[in-house]
């Protein structure tokens, strides 16, 4: 279905941009990765720094979360860390988007095509725009 304003989609995606990176995640894996808010936040954070420790990543994600009673507490922190270790990081690792060293707790974004970073950016911008309309 075409957008109502018939504006063409602008993207820098081409075969050359895909060849410039060693990792080319399959489309289903890539879209599954950005289908979750915590994973989008994680990917956006990793795009700004080379590596991050699992506990620091948990701190940042918990800091972004709020509960109906106010800021997240220790129970929420533990829950976010469990979700990262058992759900989000395995999915992102399997998709080839991140590397996670269980021994050191270091998480790193892998080298990806520019179009993948553009998708991360678009997903973040879209989410903020939707939140601002509510």
TrEMBL record:
<feature type="domain" description="DUF7344">
    <location>
        <begin position="31"/>
        <end position="108"/>
    </location>
</feature>
<dbReference type="InterPro" id="IPR036388">
    <property type="entry name" value="WH-like_DNA-bd_sf"/>
</dbReference>
<dbReference type="Pfam" id="PF24035">
    <property type="entry name" value="DUF7344"/>
</dbReference>
<dbReference type="InterPro" id="IPR055768">
    <property type="entry name" value="DUF7344"/>
</dbReference>
<dbReference type="InterPro" id="IPR036390">
    <property type="entry name" value="WH_DNA-bd_sf"/>
</dbReference>
<protein>
    <submittedName>
        <fullName>ArsR family transcriptional regulator</fullName>
    </submittedName>
</protein>
<feature type="region of interest" description="Disordered">
    <location>
        <begin position="1"/>
        <end position="27"/>
    </location>
</feature>
């Amino acid at each position: 279905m075409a957008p109502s304003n018939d504006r063409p989609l602008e993207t820098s995606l081409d075969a050359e941009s895909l060849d410039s990176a060693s990792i080319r995640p399959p489309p289903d894996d890539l879209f599954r990765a950005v289908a979750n808010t915590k994973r989008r936040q994680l990917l956006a954070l990793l795009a700004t720094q080379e590596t991050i420790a699992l506990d620091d990543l948990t701190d940042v994600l918990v800091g972004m979360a709020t509960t109906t009673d106010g800021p997240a507490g220790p129970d929420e922190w533990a829950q976010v860390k469990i979700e990262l270790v058992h759900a989000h990081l395995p999915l992102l690792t399997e998709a080839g988007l991140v590397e996670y060293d269980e021994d050191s707790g270091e998480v790193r974004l892998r080298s990806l095509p520019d179009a993948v970073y553009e998708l991360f950016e678009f997903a973040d911008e879209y989410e903020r725009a939707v939140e601002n309309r509510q």
